[in-house]
Amino acid sequence: MPRAENPYLYIVAAGTLRLYTPSGIVDYIEGQYSHSRIDTPLHGTVLAPSEMGDFLAVSVEFTAGDVIAVAIELDNGLTGRILDGGIGEEAMAEADREAVRSAARLLDTALGAAGSEFLRRNILREVIYYLLRGSCGGQLLRLSANAGRADKIYDANS
To answer: Where does the record place the Transcription regulator HTH AraC N-terminal domain (predicted)?
Structure first.
């Protein structure tokens, strides 16, 4: 399970998973993800392995500062479109898929023999970029911008 100290991205890479959170039960299939710090899963159950017979979920941790740093560098009014819901559904769905692919590259980099902090840091920025452009981008940006208030909400839910 992801740790709750910082925001995180939790991806089901292979198989099907049921997560039990303070607000309810959520099922995830391969390629789906969640991100939050407020509704952190308490535990999970593998519902079904992948076609290959395995299960893999990955948790990528980052900070609210990481999200804000990426958002500050966005161009062409993208931050405003993220907050206003001005990104089309098809573009958000593609960004969600790219976030998962980028997270897989991040994992490959971390597991590689010549792990590079430079690559890790920049691929993490890429993951955050796609998360911001994805279906939950507005929520992620608002939570990050209000990190102090989100801390209080998290503490109240704990």
So the answer is: 2-138
